[in-house]
């Protein structure tokens, strides 16, 4: 398939395909186009975003089956072949002979590249090494000064995954404050969020308003734009003293206080009722994975609050009430809360 035809055919499944590099489009045309068409025949849409538990299980199954077929003795050798130079030639030959690309992506309606990255994250033993020690943080700073953003090289030197070292460096690159937020920091956060939202809104309105009107216009923003898909790394840079995740959590708290007029929605009898409503609604949804939950819709069970607030409250609920929750599936957690915790909460109420 020539490049223009590939772009045209892929656009049906990936609307932003024209912003992708030509070399990536050529690869997608080979690895993904036929799969996407097959999924379309089955009425299955191509997915992006977080992987569900079902998809993660399918990746595990695909990798395990490929190891059985080829006799390669570990997922690490299969997915991080460059770490085993003495076996590299044999592994690459087996991958080619047994159609590794097709096998890895079997049954998963996503671009192959995303499936491959997810598999590497799941099976990289360097990804689960716990907290960084002070010595490791100092090494990371030193290696970054020498090698810049060459995360592959730095990850090999530190025996941590690429993603882990990149994320950790983002966290420690400046003087991060872990204490309570000061008034000055909170004001910086508010200004930073306002700037990015204004810029986005003005770009959207550029064609519909004359510049004279636009310069004097107060932009009206619906509540969803105040907390959905904000560029947190950009906001982190503007605040300067906080990591992006802290900024996101603080902004959720600010919004929640605004939207609820400062009421403590999760305290006392209101808190009990909110927990009861949340468990009941989650149980009624009958979903298998947290990614399938419409958290936006669920926020109405507690009040007019951002979805991140509801997600945080659900996390607190499962951690404090469900024994061995890490080993349970999402649906098992919901069943436990409904069958064991709900009657207790209702009696308390």
TrEMBL record:
GO terms for cellular component: nucleolus. InterPro entries: Homeodomain-like_sf, Myb_dom, SANT/Myb, TTF1-like. GO terms for molecular function: chromatin binding. GO terms for biological process: termination of RNA polymerase I transcription. Residues 124-161 form the HTH myb-type domain. SMART domains: SANT. Residues 124-172, 173-255 form the Myb-like domain. PANTHER family: TRANSCRIPTION TERMINATION FACTOR 1 (PTHR46760). This is Transcription termination factor 1. It comes from Spheniscus mendiculus (Galapagos penguin). The gene is Ttf1.
